[in-house]
Amino acid sequence: MLHKKLAGPGASARKYDVITALGAHALSLGKHDQRMVLRLITLLTARYNWGRDELSIGQREIARLWSCNERTVKREMAKLRGLGWLVVRKQGARGRVTTYGLDTEKMLQATKAIWPEIGSDFVVRLEGASAETVVPFPVKGTVAAPDMSDATEWGLARAILHQQDPGRYGAWLQALSRVGRAGGRLTLRAPSRFHAAYVQTHLTGAILSACQAVDGDVNTIEVVE
């Protein structure tokens, strides 16, 4: 569930709280994750439209802002989507850039361990705001997010697929393993012939889309037993 957009009375302070939480969280991480969060903070402060609660910017422009190449942008944006911090509102097509929204509630939950280091007033303020906005929903058979330390195209795509549909991911995609890559063809292994046939028939489109979000050179998905 997306957090209520940061607009209206108290919105300015709330924005600073989110960015402060992200910054303190980043400083507690290793250098690679730290840089990813710093890149997100820079993106939010430079290009996020807080009033409309959306980010609409092309990969080339992000690459210039981050002083990196577009492949790095794809990888980092995929990680942020896998974490659930960025949510696709409108997929880019025919020259149009993808529009993202923020899930600030997931950001705050991910950074909660560091709140006491920021200050007791910060904890009281954020916990009070969360109590007013979070609506509990029953969760059945929660599927854990994949380990994002696997930086292959499949490792990053798994995080996107989990974020899109945890149930489908747990039932059909979690068990797939990466066999190898030959040019644009990515080969995945399923635990049974039936499993492989079902995924090949019904889910390769979703898999390909997620893989291309992090590596545009992937053009074919093959699922074997």
Q: What does this 3D model show about the protein?
A:
The chain has 225 residues and is an alpha+beta fold. The protein has two domains: 11-133, Orthogonal Bundle (Arc Repressor Mutant, subunit A), CATH 1.10.10; 153-224, DnaA, N-terminal domain (GMP Synthetase, Chain A, domain 3), CATH 3.30.300.180. The chain is 55% helix and 12% strand. The chain contains eleven helices and six strands. A hairpin with an 8-residue loop joins strand 2 (86-90) and strand 3. Helix 1 packs across helix 5 (104-111), helix 4 runs parallel beside helix 8 (153-164) and helix 8 (153-164) packs across helix 9 (166-173). It starts with 10 loop residues before the first helix and ends with a strand. The relative contact order is 0.11.
| Rg over C-alpha atoms, rounded to the nearest angstrom | 19 Å
Give me the strand/helix succession.
Answer: HHEHHEEHHHHHEEHHE
Strand order of the largest sheet: 1-3-2
Category by helix and strand content: alpha+beta
Q: Provide the residue-averaged pLDDT.
A: 84
Number of strands: 6
Helix content: 40-55%
Total of DSSP H or I helical runs spanning 4+ residues: 11
| Low-pLDDT sequence parts | 130-140
Would you state the CATH class of the largest domain?
A: Mainly Alpha
Strand content: 5-15%
